[in-house]
Amino acid sequence: MQQYPVRWNAIAALVALGGTVTVTQAEEAVPLPAADVVVVSATRIGHTVFDMPASIDVIDATRIQQSQQRVNASEALAAVPGLVAQNRQNYAQDLQISSRGFGARSTFGVRGVRLIADGIPASMPDGQGQAATFNLDMAERIEVLRGPFSAIYGNHSGGVIQLFTRDGEGAPTIEASYSAGSYGSRKADVNAQGKQGDVGYVLDASRFETDGYRAHSAATRDQAFAKLTLTPMQDAKLTIVANGLRQKDTQDPLGVTWATYQRDPRAGETDATDTQTPRRTLADRYDTRKSIDHQQIGANWEQQFGDDRLRVMVYGGNRQVIQYQSFSRAFQAPATHSGGVIDFDRDFYGADVNWTHVSQLAGGKLSTTFGLEYGRSDDDRKGYENFIGTQFGVKGALRRDEQDVVSNLDPYLQAEWQSGAWMLSAGVRRSTVKVSVDDRFVSNGNDSGNLEFSHTTPVLGVLYRVSPKVNVYASAARGFETPTLNELFYASAGGFNFNLKPAESTHLETGIKTRLDERTRLNAAIFQVRTSDEVVVDSSGGGRTSYRNASKTLRRGLEVSLESSWRYGLSTRVALTALRATYDQGFGAVPQGSRLPGVPKANAYAELAWKDSADRFGAALEGIATSKIYADDANADQAAPGYGILNARMNASQQWNGWRFRQFARLNNLLGKNYIGSVIVGDTNKRYYEAAPQRNWLLGVSAAYQF
């Protein structure tokens, strides 16, 4: 099998792809559509991206929805510098998302990065979130905040990803779409939207099915979404959002060893303990799978009082999960085993209330936000044997029974002062996270207990307008990241891990934002993050992972994004990231200077796109490259090699009376390379590697009618 290590000249080639076009007649080019998008991340006061003292990118609806199946946010997030969003080809474990290296160790879901949808948290109080709950079909934009200002959102360190869905507007519209592609991938979606009087509505339902690229990776996902926007009184807006996600028996292909990947990237790992001939894979023998049933509803009330504003947000929901893992008590000491089947029923709810007051101070405008956020999740959690007699992959004897409660209570204060060319922003948040365990299965020891983590996270930023086209800024913050409930569940010696401490970090960033002209925008930032007590993988196998606190880590990096529009409908986009993330102090068998696992040293995205003047046809060539990724702390095992791939997409649209028709085609990995798309950090059995698809295709059509 060929390997494809990435070299700096490969990244340079991607830059060339994004910047080879030149123009001499500026008036024939089209201005960038997202240049003046107003965002609310970072300061909570609406500003354009250009006027924010922070690294923040906006992904608009076109990029999210056109020429995509709208199942995985990773496709749209690929164009954001500083962010690594990988589709693991494993719908049982969700996407792998990291921001400036935070979150790369997560074995499932998203941690280290706060997820928010329409102002309502998609992350639990412990910091764990699920990107699968995002409804991409109705997305209007995604804001991606990185660096110091993410500390104002509390318990996490890497960043904030906020999804905003569209409001219902205009005459009633109904739309149906269907897409299909390689490996039995198919999705059907139907939605309706409109506005009657003061009530806007959006409704959406979809089903996604796939046979999976990797062995034992088939999945079915049903999603539903509803949004109402009302104006019950003058200067007031009420938004109600409900969503549901259901995945029944989603197969988990697990990771594989380097030898298995080289033999067949799509194959599963063989179970050495299996007595059958030929031996079954671990995934097949244990029938590793997960079922998810998730519902959530929330409401946002916004009331203007002149220049002042009151916001009240409340939400609640339920999440039920049952997961079958690939290990058994037959191979573990009974005292440390809590079952190979995880079964929990979680109720969660929370609220956020804040008031923004605007006044004059020292010849400038002062905007001050006072707020209080509360969240709570309550798990009824059980664990069972995953065998009965000689049959594996079935629910057996009870091995765990407990109630797990996590809550957070966070008061916060933010202030922003503007005068002339200067903008000063400051904030402080006091986060208190409490964890309570009530163990009802005490035959293997009583794991009941409580934990409390508290930390104050200040942030400070300054922006100076050098000219109407150039802004420079600097920011700093202290952050912290508590262990998630999943990271506390297992200690290496068995039982609940009450010894884990939160990681604390210091963030520094400086950057420049320039509008070279109305068609070209360049953003660049350099940053440094020092972290103590980093939470790292202690051992991992069969879907179960235990964690420990490591020593100090150091992250230093550079992010650059360049967007341009040219004549003849051409546009380019480039996103480059260079990140040196290392252990600044050795621990155990890990020497100082070792690279943080799961974090590439460099990655790049480049795009050359075209659309006609009437926006009826479009096409683009995309390039993605990343350097090698280590999967273990000591960097002793085989790293996942770097790679570079090319994708192509085309789209078309037509109008006829009240109808709008759209079609798209996408061809990914044009050169058909074999490469590892993601790694499972710290797997004890060295089953680190998760292969990405070779050349694959996707076709989609939609029809919408406006009454």
Automatic annotation (TrEMBL):
GO biological process: siderophore transmembrane transport
Gene3D superfamilies: TonB-dependent receptor, beta-barrel domain, TonB-dependent receptor, plug domain
Domain TonB-dependent receptor-like beta-barrel: 248-670
CDD domains assigned: ligand_gated_channel
Cell compartments where the protein resides: Cell outer membrane
GO CC annotations, alphabetized: cell outer membrane
Entry keyword Transport: yes
InterPro entries xrefs: Beta-barrel_TonB, Beta-barrel_TonB_sf, Plug_dom, Plug_dom_sf, TonB-dep_rcpt-like
GO MF annotation: an example: siderophore uptake transmembrane transporter activity
UniProt similarity note: Belongs to the TonB-dependent receptor family.
Protein name in the entry: Ferrienterobactin receptor
Protein's organism: Duganella phyllosphaerae
Annotated gene: fepA_1
